[in-house]
Amino acid sequence: MLKLKKMGVVVVILLTVMGIAVSGYAKEVEKITNYKININKATAEELTKLDRVGKQYAQRIITYREKNGPFEKPEDITKVKGIGKQIWEANKDVITVK
């Protein structure tokens, strides 16, 4: 009986890890299929599809563009507080301003 419980725990752990891997893979597939997010027009929900961008950063992007006008080039996203080189590098193939 104890072996069955241990096996059940192992199965749950494996399924969890597989779910995380599949989630990351889905984002990569979106990038490969020319999925673009226009940071000048995207909603907060759309912005959270960017890697490492949650609700708080999405709102900062929206607030920045409302205050300063549209982004002129994709890398201008790094002007938003908290969005640095790592987030830019993770998303540079997905971000557009057109």
Write a brief structural summary.
The chain is mainly α and 98 residues long. It has helices at 2-32, 44-47, 55-68, 85-91; strands spanning 37-38, 95-96.
Describe this structure in words.
The chain has 98 residues and is mainly alpha-helical. The chain folds into 2 domains: 1-35; 36-98, Orthogonal Bundle (DNA polymerase, domain 1). Helices cover 57% and strands 4% of the residues. The chain has 4 helices and 2 strands, in the order αβαααβ. The protein has helices spanning 2-32, 44-47, 55-68, 85-91, and strands at 37-38, 95-96. Strands 1-2 form a two-stranded parallel sheet. The protein is elongated, with a radius of gyration of 18 Å. The protein starts with a helix and ends with a strand. The model has no long low-confidence stretch (mean pLDDT 84).
Which descriptors would you attach to this protein?
98 residues, DNA polymerase, domain 1, mainly alpha, elongated
What is the rounded distance between the termini?
Answer: 61 Å
CATH top level class name of the largest domain: Mainly Alpha
Strand order, biggest sheet?
1-2
Coarse shape: elongated
Radius of gyration: 18 Å
Count of DSSP H/I helices? 4
CATH superfamily of the largest domain: AF1531-like domain
Helix content: 55-70%
Write down the domain tally. 2
List the helices and strands and how they pair.
Elements: H1 2-32, E1 37-38, H2 44-47, H3 55-68, H4 85-91, E2 95-96
Parallel strand pairs: 1-2
